[in-house]
């Protein structure tokens, strides 16, 4: 019996490591947007609203592809679905090559959408997988571990790609202002070509990981069954829409991902355009955001559920987000920008806590319920776009008012919403 328990623990640990690698990968790819937004804003000569279509293209794919991803996973299972998702991401990376060669912004956006499609498939498999890999009470702790993998990658991505794509950007922009049309086009073509080599390398790595996952010993997990108590409770349920905690959690996830992307993807542009901080300094602020999230995840792994419940952590996160958002709006300079970066601390435990609270009690509806939460990641498409519009209409700092009602709702879901059955 002891040997069997030890074997199960080893299998679980091995599975967590494999899923952790996947979280690292889609963390790295996702948080590249923070560099791509200011890079493409210059390379394609865009305004704020247009530049935030980068985030829109990445995250709207979750809304479009979440339900199809559930159908794919039903046919392939979790492991093969993850492998397929990595291949789709590699295709999206390769689309950047013709996009850069022609300097066509729409093609860049299409590549991001294809990458997002692969990410939607990966997230549809990986998030419920890690949620149900152990006891529901400690799900937030396991997702926090995944979050550390995700955000370590996210912290590295802006540093690595920022050094390649944003190097000497202030000097380049200054040169562009005094150039004629032909010289300016040639300079912008050369700038756009900087993405080609990194994205070829990325595609090769993604395909290699896909092969490794396909041949790995990752076990399949059954989510369609229910224990007797849960089956009795869900006997009269015929639709996933009959679970209010899922529907309210879906809205919480939508708003959360929106403010998370705003905190990570707008902070470099805000520092440059809103507070006149040099690009060579500003390019590190997304890394600070991700470091703050890592600190939050570490706190979660230590405190949940031993010292604090998932729902209490979510309440604290909502309150902290409101405080930091207001501080960012009513201060200036480095203090204001750092308050946006520190939203990473407020955001860290929101995603891990929403998943188990929203999926609790769904039983055989777990896979389709997970698809709802994946669709809600489209908040990362919509809210940053609204932020960009507000930044153009008013100013980049005032546009951050959008985060305040979002954090208020997250607090409501933690305090009341998740209890509604």
Automatic annotation (TrEMBL):
One of its GO terms (cellular component) is plasma membrane. The keyword Cell division does not apply. One of its GO terms (molecular function) is galactose transmembrane transporter activity. Signal peptide: none annotated. This is MFS transporter. Belongs to the major facilitator superfamily. FHS transporter (TC 2.A.1.7) family. It comes from the Bacteria. One of its GO terms (biological process) is D-glucose transmembrane transport. Keywords: Cell membrane, Membrane, Transmembrane, Transmembrane helix. It is a multi-pass membrane protein. Intake of glucose and galactose. Its main location: membrane. Coiled coil: none annotated. InterPro entries: Glc/Gal_transptr_bac, MFS, MFS_dom, MFS_trans_sf, MFS_TsgA-like. The chain crosses the membrane at residues 16-40, 52-73, 80-99, 105-122, 143-166, 196-215, 245-264, 284-304, 316-334, 340-359, 371-391, 397-415. It is found in: Cell inner membrane. It holds the Pfam family MFS_1. Residues 15-421 form the Major facilitator superfamily (MFS) profile domain. It comes from Salegentibacter mishustinae.
